Amino acid sequence: MLAPPLDSLGKDMECEEQSSDSSLDIVIKWNGNDYDVKNLNTNSDVKTLKEEIFKCTGVRPERQKLINLRISGKMAPDECLLNTINLKTGTKIMMVGSKEEDIAEASVVPPKREKGRKCKSYDSEDFDEERVDKMEIHLAKVQNRVDNYEIKMLNDPRPGKKLLVLDIDYTLFDHRSAAESGLELMRPYLHDFLESAYENYDIVIWSATDMRWIERKMTVLNVTNNVAYKIMFYLDNAAMITVHTPKYGVVSVKPLGVIWGKFPNNYNKHNTIMFDDIRRNFLMNPKNGLKIRPFREAHLNWEMDKELLYLAQYLVEISKLDDFSKLNHRNWEKFIKKGQYKKEKRHKRDRTDSNEPKPPDSHPKL
Ligand SMILES: [Mg+2]
Questions:
Q1: Cβ atoms of 295 and 289 closer than 8 Å
Q2: CA of 249 to the centre of ligand 1 (A)
Q3: pLDDT by residue (tens digit) across 92-110?
């Protein structure tokens, strides 16, 4: 089948054929990168285009979904000639698709563990997570959010800063307890934590509720217009995706790929960390998530809860690293204890060497 009749063509395509000898250069956007496909003959078809894309991306033609290559409102079929589609040199085509090796990796059945022997790198939960984040259907949903979710910027990204993504409910705020004012339910040290984090991180707040509630809560807590730090933007439930896992069933999760896809030059898996009290929200990015202890029963726990105080310290410590992907955030407390130990040892040595009094310790004792 060739192109459909002219009267069936939608607004998103051009009906006129271009000259028979013309060629064009287009750009394929995939996985946050641009790939140039040059000297495409406009008399060739979509199948030929996909073969060219395969050469530069490694994604097989049958795995490619060219999201905005459309005819009559539908994705252009392989037989469709390029000269019937509104393509011009420089046109950017969004692609979703996975390479064979990634799909194979996602389909691997975890090996049976020997009885009584612990697997060093993974537990059963991790296997679910590893599989989910590479599934083509989920990556397509992420790309959809990158293409269609509109971010209302409050402040611009700052060059060289890392990215901190924060949940609200039970992470920054006890949203269930009764109180005269929202401020009574705010997690202790919230503003100190955000002010400290802002030095090294651009901050995004992402909550599984709608934007009106997020804006209202953040205004009540005096986060939105705080002079000591700036929030880059808020994300709501519309930026989340649903995934299916054997462990949790169908659940909504917070894929960081949405932010990475929107800001490919600023943020990636190497410089992003997300805090949430629900681990399943990290399913698409298990290595970038840190599960925070939930802050509940604010009136009872106000005095004791120092989670944000210690986490501020962790963020300072890891901000010196070039790559977060080698960290295991489950061990964050051990990490700062180790750092604290090293500092104390250094101070002790300096004191002995210089015979000077010990400098005041600005870090919290653990
Ligand atoms: Mg929460």
A1: no
A2: 19
A3: 888 877 776 665 544 444 3
